[in-house]
Amino acid sequence: MSVSNSDSMNNRYLQEQPGGNYCYKNNMKNESASRPKNVENMSKKLYEDDDASTPLLELRNVTKEYIDDNGKSITVLNDINLSVNYNEFISVVGPSGCGKSTLLRMIMGLERCTRGDILFKGQSMSGGKVNPHMAMVFQSFGLFPWLTVIENVEFGLESMHIPKAQRREKSLSIIQEVGLEGFEDAYPRELSGGMKQRVGIARALVIDPEILLMDEPFSSLDPLTAEALREEVLKVWSNKFTTPDVVIMVTHNVEEAVYLSDRIIILSHRPANVVKQVNINIPRPREKRDKVIYEYLDQITTLIA
Ligand SMILES: Nc1ncnc2c1ncn2[C@@H]1O[C@H](COP(=O)(O)OP(=O)(O)O)[C@@H](O)[C@H]1O
Ligand SMILES: [Mg+2]
């Protein structure tokens, strides 16, 4: 798979499933089969009612408070309830400073909730540990400047006790998948913003995350690069043979959210709660200039205070 292939979606065809779910069937030969998805879970999406199964991720009354410099408690997120099913692409939008990044960090286990609980496959994750089935892509890439591309990607695997040769093999395959072949030994300073973010995405994908968390991943890229990377992420997510099963993306760009997502979670001002969840009922592949996209865009923009 090449990141620069703008016709990436042409190799797929849309299948409508019982219950109105849509998914892509991969028309190509076992692409990226090194990162298999949980086929048992995928068949749930294909043949069963998603509501009948345990959600992949559940947030129950999640509240986050910080203590400010004066010792005063500030509630950032207040009583957030959210249920995420297999194979969903979800975006989170809301005013600046309302707690979107905090929410992603808590989902991943980088921060604890003050109250409430986060469940992954029905198991409480409130023990303060990073969830090894999740990976995060950051707006500012988060690369180590002193490490090369391959070393940055391999870093994600270091805590997983995988032998060095295997780490290298896997990292090389992901680097190829995100279109960075030939740049393995380059340092971040030698790369454009788009290439840096490809490294960020490769480093996340290399651990085979079931949930890919992305915090404004495209907002510091130029429009054309952002568009190419959006297609790539969509392609990786929609490949039923590979992880991730779910993407949860924070964005300021409502048009991007509508184009990519199955569902958009709209948060209020701080203390933030869920104002509304909007299902984006547009079959895929989607047409960027489809007037329905603009109708959703108007609806959601008016809901963001
Ligand atoms: N570690 C922290 N200590 C104190 N306050 C914090 C901390 N992290 C975030 N905040 C505060 O929580 C609020 C939400 O931050 P953030 O999640 O980054 O918002 P968003 O991503 O929606 O812009 C902000 O007011 C921020 O100052
Ligand atoms: Mg943020």
Model description:
This protein has 305 residues and is of the alpha/beta class. The chain has 2 domains: 219 residues, P-loop containing nucleotide triphosphate hydrolases (Rossmann fold, 3-Layer(aba) Sandwich); 70 residues, no CATH class. Helices cover 30% and strands 24% of the residues. The chain has 8 helices and 12 strands. The strands form 3 sheets. It has a 6-stranded mixed beta sheet with strand order 8-9-10-5-11-12, with helices on both faces. A 4-stranded antiparallel beta sheet has the order 4-3-6-7, with helices on one face. A two-stranded antiparallel sheet has the order 1-2. Helix 3 packs across helix 4. It is globular. Bound molecules: adenosine-5'-diphosphate and magnesium ion (MG). Magnesium ion binds next to helix 2.
Please identify which CATH superfamily of the largest domain we are dealing with: P-loop containing nucleotide triphosphate hydrolases
The total count of strands amounts to: 12
Catalogue the ligands: adenosine-5'-diphosphate, magnesium ion
Q: What is the approximate shape?
A: globular
Helical percentage: 25-40%
Query: How many structural domains in the coordinates?
Result: 2
Strand order of the largest sheet: 8-9-10-5-11-12
Chain-averaged pLDDT: 86
CATH architecture of the largest domain: 3-Layer(aba) Sandwich
The CATH topology assignment of the largest domain is Rossmann fold
* Distance, first to last CA: 40 Å
At the first level of CATH, what is the class of the largest domain? Alpha Beta
Largest sheet: 6 strands, mixed
Give the SSE string: EEHEEEHEEEHHHEHEHEEH
Rg, rounded, reads 19 Å
Beta-strand fraction estimate: 15-25%
Going by helix content, strand content and strand pairing, the class is alpha/beta
Q: Flag low-confidence runs.
A: 1-33, 41-52
The total count of helices amounts to 8
